[in-house]
Design a protein that fits this description.
heterodimer, A: about 375 residues, alpha/beta, Fumarate Reductase Iron-sulfur Protein, Chain B, domain 2, Rossmann fold, 3 domains, four-stranded parallel sheet, about 5% strand, B: alpha+beta, Uridine Diphospho-n-acetylenolpyruvylglucosamine Reductase, domain 2, Uridine Diphospho-n-acetylenolpyruvylglucosamine Reductase, domain 3, five-stranded antiparallel sheet, about 35% helix, binds flavin-adenine dinucleotide, binds iron/sulfur cluster
Chain lengths: ~375, ~475
């Protein structure tokens, strides 16, 4: 058995995990059965435990970095279930992301992620849409300065525009005098690049966004996207970006405050029954479980929990971590599984506070004729309150 | 025994049996299938996923004809090296056969495929008001066939028995390819030698299990749980002995965590209490009875002067305690790079002596600087899991660990009349102690049984019981 990494320079992002972190995984397998991506492949390398062994193998020089290893590591949605489950405290997501960064450097990144990087360089968004169209969802000129900044994110700007409109609608309802900003020059937060190992470009985006945030005069930044929220709140700090102590809130956290302050009230008394999906990057990654549920309950909505698979044990929608871009069928397979779990509640509406989860779950529901309406939580709140 | 290599021709025959996508020889996969939760490793030549008993049968006929070793594997959580293909050959990954085939709530039975995960089975059974009581700490991951093959047991074995007490029948493919059903779907049957019980605990050496028929047990109405933290290991062990030998009710659980393990596992489960030697005591049944039993057990444990004692406040608190207990082994991985869990049993009256001697092993080895010793287990039935925490990458530390094993089994457990494994099996790592525990004649009989089932010694060869 070798103890030294074979070629140190090859795995420089992973190296800090070699001495201690990767050794935490003692292969108990606790993380295996509920990993949402284990079912994507037949073999054990498709489980979190298998992924940890692949990394260990590379670090100990027993395995060479390969296309096969890259495939297994890129199939992970970075949902964080295994990390939460791991009694040994293995930082599985950090390890997988570091491995991806090394693999990408070695030319073993995924094609679609390279396209994403290119598109971001050109158009500031991973979808390849024109940067000038970023706020085309808004029917009017948007204010560029204010205490509250709404960071829209790429999915809501271009694909789930209902989320953007509903968020703005609610912000205006509570702030009729203005005092908020939506920046037309906003760039991709960098989440997809960080998750897929393209760190340099992500850092450049973070720096530019930080400048825009400062220029807007924001004291609070809010976003209705779980991925943007994790990135701006957690990763920007890790990347050494100073946001001057600006408060960063996921939009439902703000909604919850507004409801408590009496600024937002339900307009009609219609009885609505929903089930709730925890976005991984909001729940397990940032531990925001209660506020979105409280918002719904305070507005009179009945929230039925998905049995045994809610909060920390929630299953991933399948889209995150760059999986939807590269392995769309797998992403939809996971979403279908999640919808089946949701069906057990008897609710016909699923809400989730993330446009990316919404997008993927909605497509899976349509594709498989599943009788479940999928809404971004803010869309439902806007319907009830405005 | 000399085995033949897995040639490209064999691979293509395997592909013909199970289909191209269910056969793999990628080095990355072989690497992952080379280990269980121990420090031992050996790569197979090929991994195969069979989907039916007929496919397993074809594979075994081929392997038997060509003299190629075959190792069945469930979730690979074994703590004895038993699923490691030490002679190479074929690994059968049985974990993808994971359907619960029929829950029969009238006849109180459930039929499952081999790869159903223990906790997922219990999730499903709970919907019908039942459970499958053997509850190994590895239940979040381990498979039913893996449990059958190891005769696994857990927190509730004292009251509800081990896996063998819940198996009614098995569908098994013999190493020579015949498919047999052992036992009967009826609750009682003595029309056969007890082949079911022979298969249970056979560690993948007598046949490949493809289906399992289990008895169902109704879920108890209530659990009453408390925990105690003691200053010394002897106090904790004495409390356990007191409960077991004084009370007429058998507790549902009587579990133990030594100081080192308490620290790591409580940390994982978010429990903040004084650190010491922990006993978890649980009674189940009708609410009033369980609470009254707990009260009686509580008073008995108090007599050994715990430094902390508390009844679980509610179901969430109880879950936290059990989470800590179940996570004991992987939580110890927080301490040092390697954890090696051992498995030993003594009669309960010998517990205080055994538990104390186990605590002293690192000092006897002069290894306190680089080795921690966790210990935990089902103390109510005399079963403990001393766990060596060290760094397997350092040769001297590995050597010291092997010496530690010898001290544990040869100097402590066997002289006390104990057994070198209560539930994990002999596998690879405890083979050397088996003669001393059971004697030559007994070992010879076991080897003879193995030969009878497996004349060419192809199924999981080189492991303890069958050789
Ligand atoms: C954290 C942790 C805690 C544990 N706690 C306990 C505990 O409390 N109690 C306990 O008893 N054990 C415990 N174990 C040991 C182990 O988890 C159990 O023995 C478990 O039942 C093994 O199941 P598996 O599916 O992982 O089997 P594997 O590890 O894959 O295999 C175990 C044995 O079963 C054989 N086998 C597997 N499938 C088949 C099949 N279909 N047909 C024939 N043979 C087969 C294999 O060849 C091997 O010999 C623990 C292990 C860990 C890592
Ligand atoms: S739960 Fe942790 S220690 Fe166990 S297999 Fe998964 S990563 Fe490894
Ligand atoms: S982060 Fe999620 S998808 Fe990735 S290995 Fe862990 S459990 Fe599986």
């Amino acid at each position: 058995m070798t103890t030294e990494p074979k070629e140190e320079s090859k795995l420089k992002r992973l190296e800090p995990f070699a001495e201690r972190e990767i050794m935490r995984c003692m292969r108990c397998g606790f993380c295996r059965p509920l990993c949402p991506t284990w079912g994507f492949s037949e073999w054990d390398t498709g489980s979190p435990r298998g992924r940890m062994m692949l990394v260990r193998g590379m670090l100990q020089g027993d395995l060479e970095p390969s296309e096969y290893i890259a495939d297994r590591l890129y199939l992970c949605t970075t949902c964080g279930y295994c990390e939460w489950r791991c009694p040994a405290g293995t930082k599985t997501v950090d390890i997988i992301e570091a491995a991806r960064a090394d693999l990408a450097d070695l030319g073993l990144g995924r094609k679609s992620h390279h396209y994403i990087e290119e598109r971001i360089r050109e158009e500031n968004n991973p979808l390849g849409e024109a940067k000038e169209e970023r706020t085309s969802w808004a029917s009017k000129e948007l204010p560029q300065k204010g205490d509250l900044m709404y960071f829209v994110g790429c999915m809501a700007s271009y694909r789930e525009q209902g989320t953007a409109k509903a968020t703005l609608n609610l912000i205006e309802t509570v702030n009729p005098e203005g005092g908020y900003s939506v920046i037309g020059d906003e760039l991709c937060c960098g989440s997809v690049l960080l998750r897929t190992g393209h760190r340099e470009v992500a850092k450049a985006l973070a720096e530019k966004n930080a400048e825009l945030i400062k220029k807007s005069g924001a004291k609070i930044i809010t976003t209705s996207c779980a991925g943007c929220y994790r990135t701006i709140r957690k990763d920007y700090e890790l990347l050494g970006i100073d946001l001057n102590g600006v408060e960063i809130l996921h939009f439902p956290e703000l909604l919850n405050r507004w409801i408590d302050e009496g600024k937002l009230k339900p307009k009609n008394g219609e009885k609505i029954v929903v089930t709730y999906h925890d976005p991984c990057h909001l729940g397990r990654h940032m531990k925001v479980y209660d506020e979105p549920r409280e918002v719904l309950k305070k507005l009179g909505v009945e929230v039925r929990e998905i049995p045994l698979r809610n909060r920390e044990t929630s299953a991933c929608c399948g889209a995150g971590g760059g999986v939807r871009a590269e392995y769309k069928d797998s992403a939809l397979e996971a979403a279908t599984e999640r919808l089946k779990q949701a069906e057990e509640t008897g609710a016909k509406i699923l809400v989730t506070p993330c446009p990316f989860c919404t997008f993927n779950l909605r497509e899976a529901a349509a594709k498989n004729n599943i009788d479940m309406k999928v809404y971004d939580l803010v869309e439902l709140v806007a319907k009830i309150c405005t | 025994m000399k085995y033949n290599p897995v040639t490209p021709k064999i691979i293509s025959e395997l592909e013909n049996i199970v289909g191209l996508k269910n056969v793999i020889t990628r080095p990355e996969e072989l690497y992952v299938y080379s280990r269980d939760s121990t420090i031992f490793e050996h790569s197979p030549d090929v991994v195969v996923i069979p989907k039916t008993a007929e496919q397993v049968s074809e594979i075994l006929k081929l392997a038997n004809r060509e003299k190629i070793p075959v190792v069945p594997r469930g979730a690979g959580t074994s703590a004895s090296g038993s699923p490691i293909p030490i002679m190479g050959g074929i690994v059968l990954d049985m974990s993808r056969n994971d359907k619960i085939l029929e829950i029969d709530s009238h006849n109180l039975t459930v039929e499952v495929e081999s790869g159903v995960v223990c906790d997922l089975l219990n999730e499903e059974l709970a919907k019908h008001g039942f459970f499958f009581p053997p509850d190994p700490a590895s239940s979040p991951a381990c498979t039913i066939a893996g449990m059958v093959a190891n005769n696994s047991a857990g927190n509730m074995a004292m009251k509800y028995g081990t896996t063998r007490d819940h198996v009614l029948w098995l569908e098994v493919v013999l190493p020579t390819g015949e498919i047999i059903q052992t036992g009967s779907t009826t609750i009682k049957s003595v029309s056969q030698f007890d082949l079911t019980r022979l298969m249970v605990g056979s560690e993948g050496q007598l046949g490949v299990i493809t289906k399992v028929g289990l008895k169902l047990t109704p879920l108890p109405e209530h659990h009453a749980t408390a925990f105690f933290i003691f200053k010394t290991v002897e106090d904790a062990a004495k409390a356990a002995v007191r409960v077991r030998s004084t009370m007429t009710t058998i507790p549902c659980m009587l579990e133990f965590l030594n100081e080192t393990t308490t620290r790591a596992a409580f940390d994982y489960a978010g429990l903040e209490y004084p650190v010491g030697y922990t006993i978890i005591l649980d009674f189940d049944g009708a609410k009033d009875t369980a609470e009254a039993d707990l009260e009686a057990g509580f008073k008995l444990c108090e007599k050994e002067n715990p430094i902390y004692k508390e009844k679980a406040k509610d179901a969430a608190h109880r879950t936290q305690l059990l989470t800590a207990r179940k996570a004991a082994l992987p939580a110890l991985a927080r301490l040092r790079p390697t954890t090696c869990m051992e498995d030993c049993t003594v009669q309960i009256t010998k517990l205080p002596q055994a538990a104390k001697a186990i605590e002293e092993i690192p000092a006897r080895l002069g290894a306190e600087d680089f080795m921690d010793l966790g210990n935990f287990g089902h103390i109510g039935d005399g079963n403990m899991h001393p766990t060596f925490c060290f760094d397997e990458r350092i040769e001297e530390q590995r050597d010291v660990f092997f010496k530690g094993m010898d001290i544990l089994y040869e100097d402590i457990i066997l002289p006390l009349g104990g057994s070198v494994t209560g539930e994990h099996g002999i596998g690879l790592i405890r083979a050397k102690y088996i003669d001393r525990e059971h004697g030559d004649a007994s070992v010879k009989i076991m080897r003879g049984i193995k030969k009878l089932f497996d004349p060419n010694m192809i199924l999981n060869p080189g492991k303890g019981k069958g050789g």
